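Review session, final week

We close the course with one last complete record, chosen because it touches almost every idea we covered. It is Dihydroorotase, a protein from Neisseria zalophi with 345 residues. Go through it on your own first, then we will talk.
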Amino acid sequence: MQTLTIIQPDDMHLHLRDGEALKAVLPFTARQMGRAVIMPNLKPPVVSVADAMAYKARIMDALPPNSTFEPLMTLYLTDKSTPELVREAKAAGIVAFKLYPAGATTNSDSGVTDLFKLMPVLQEMAKQGVLFLVHGEVTDPEVDIFDREAVFIERVMKPVLQQVPDLKVVFEHITTADAARLVMEAGDNVAASVTPQHLLLNRNDLLVGGVRPHRYCLPVLKRESHRKALVEAVTGDNAHKFFLGTDSAPHARSLKENACGCAGMFSAATAIELYAEVFDKAGALDKLEAFASKNGARFYGLPENPRSITLIKQPCPVEAAIPFGDGEVLVPMRGGEQVAWTVQY
Ligand code: NCD
Ligand code: ZN
């Protein structure tokens, strides 16, 4: 049987939520990832160093005994963020600020209304080596939802990179050939995270034969040519600029299977297994370790994880529903089906 041993991966984009939900989802990530970059879009969002430290303590409390998992904390950028906050964050070990354009996605009401007013804050991030994580979609109601990432590149990403050329930017959960190209053509201070869903699924998988609410996430799935471009990006000559970030974003089933279903796919239960499928199908399994375990750590200035994990090419069933606190369940990506690889725990 085919096996693959790689350095333990990191998840550079993860939603853990809080309270009972946190306790329900954290063990899935902690059993396979060495570290994860924790998204700050709680209700209310994580905006101060004190918020982030308190949230980190709750995450540590929710970890299974003897876990070596390490959460990497981030702050939610708002119109009120200051250069001084960037210095405080750096001193406290916070790795990044996350930009949510106001209204772009789940819990983004506190998001930034005009990024160009925050240039002194971005300049301080560049100076301190604090990363700038970007949800790269415009929220202009005139712009078609499938074009929001491409328009963001022209309206925001390019001007920001011009004004703060040494800012370390992660273009999060990229979904288009346009974003992949921007990252490849930019300097080594620009990288991107890529989710399993955007590498495995296209918008037909979301909409043909009926709406699949559990495949609805933001940025929304795109057409097949974009999915192919992403697979080429993570396996091609510039693959060092791309790394694993699941954007695993749990929501209760009742809020997904809903007349106004919310955005987010939960992939943490079988994250590395799904990525292994992508690289295997592309004939590029030898590139999985760099994507999952090296490129992200290098970009964040962290050492590679000391442990390793082993994957076996053997189908693994994915649970149809997972308890999610308060009598709720969540439906994972591939729920009730299989993934082609199994992690040997
Ligand atoms: C995320 C969530 O639910 O927190 N949803 C999603 O569709 N990805 C928010 C986000 O990262 O956009
Ligand atoms: Zn996210």
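Two points worth writing down before the exam:
The domain at 10-265 is CATH 3.20.20.140 (TIM Barrel).
The radius of gyration is 19 Å.
Good luck, everyone.
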